[in-house]
Amino acid sequence: MTFFLEVMHEAWNLLNEAGIFILFGIFVAALIKMFISPESVAKHLAEGRVKSVFKAALLGVPLPLCSCGVLPVGASLKKQGANNGATTAFLIATPESGVDSMAVTYALMDPLMTVIRPVAAMVTAVVAGLTENFIGEKPENVQGDLDRTCPVDGCCDGHDCAPEAHRRHHGYWEKFTRGLTYAFGDLWRDIAPWFFVGILISGVIAAWVPDDALSGILGGGMRAMLVMLLVGIPLYICATASTPIAATLILKGISPGAALVFLLVGPATNATSLTVLVKILGRRGTVIYLVSLAACALLFGVAADWIYSSFGLSAPAMIGQATRMFPDWLQMAGAICLIGLSLLPLSLIH
C-alpha cells in the first residue's frame, strides 16, 4: 500500500507539472485542425522530390498524432498524390513531435530538449524522405479524390460547392469551437490513455528505482543508446506519453542523449505499425524508414550528450524548471482540468 501511494504521489506531481502545457498543446491542435486544408496539403506534397519532403516534414512536426494514428493520415496523403519521400517524411516527423509533446517536453524536461527534439524529428524525416525519393522504389503517380468535406458540420462535400462560396458558410468562431470539440474529443481520446499510462509508468520508476541507479548500468554512451533503440522501436507509445518516462529516466541516471533516442524511436514506430508501413511504403521503403530513423536517432543522441557536456549543463538539474513560472494552485488547476476533460473521452474507449 505504501508503494502504491508513493507511485500515485509521483504520478500526481508529474501531472501537475504537465497539465497546463498539455492543455495549451491541445488548444493549438484545435487551430491546426480547422485551418489547414487537405487540398493544399496534397498539392504541396506531390511537387518535386526534394521540396515536397521538406514541406512534409515541416507539416508533420507540429501535428499531434501518434505512431498508429498517423498511419491512416499518411495513407490518405499517399492516395491524394504525395510521393513516397514526402509520405515517409510525414510518417516520421508527425509522431516524433507535435505541439502537445513539445509543450510537455518544456514542462517536464528543459528548454534545450524542447528545441533539440523537433529539430531531430525534422532532420530525421528529411533524411529518410530524400533517401526514399532518390534510392527507393519508384512511386506510383496516382492522384486520388481529396476529401473536401466541410470539417465543421459536413454542410457540403467540397466538390459541388466552390471554395470561395464555402468560406462564407462558417465564421472563425464557429470553426474554432468545432476545432476545440475535435481536439478535446477525438484527438484527446486517442492520446489520453497512453498519456496516463506514461504518467503511471513514470510514477513506478520514480518510486521504485533509486536515484542514480541507472547511471552505473546504462548511463550514457552508445551502449545506453542502443538499449533505448531496441526498447523503443517495438514499443507502442505516443510522443506525449514518452516524455514523462524519458524525464524520469534522466532523473534516475540515463543521459539526455539516451533519453532522446527513446523519444525519437518510441513514438515513430511499433511492432503493430510495421506491417502497415510495408503496405504504404513497400518493403524497401520500410527498410529505409527504419534504418534512417535508427541512424539519425543515434547521431542526435550523441550530439545531445555532447551539447549538454560542452555547455556544462546538468539534465537532471534542469528537469521541470519551466513549471516554476506558475504558482502551485495554477498547476493543480491545470491537472484537475485535464483530468475532468479526460473523463468523457476515456469513458468512450471500447
Task: Report on the architecture of this protein.
It is a single chain. With 350 residues, the chain is mainly α. The protein contains 16 helices and no strands. α1 packs antiparallel against α6. The longest helix is centred in the C-terminal third of the chain and has 40 residues, at 271-310.
Number of helices: 16
Mean pLDDT across every amino acid position: 78
CA-to-CA gap between the ends? 30 Å
Helix/strand order, N-terminal first = HHHHHHHHHHHHHHHH
Q: Describe the main β-sheet briefly.
A: none
Radius of gyration: 20 Å
- Strand fraction: under 5%
Q: What general outline do the C-alpha atoms trace?
A: globular
Provide the structure class: mainly alpha
Give helix % range. Answer: over 70%
List keywords for this structure.
350 residues, mainly alpha, 16 helices, globular
In short:
By secondary structure, the protein is mostly helical. It is built from 16 helices and no strands.
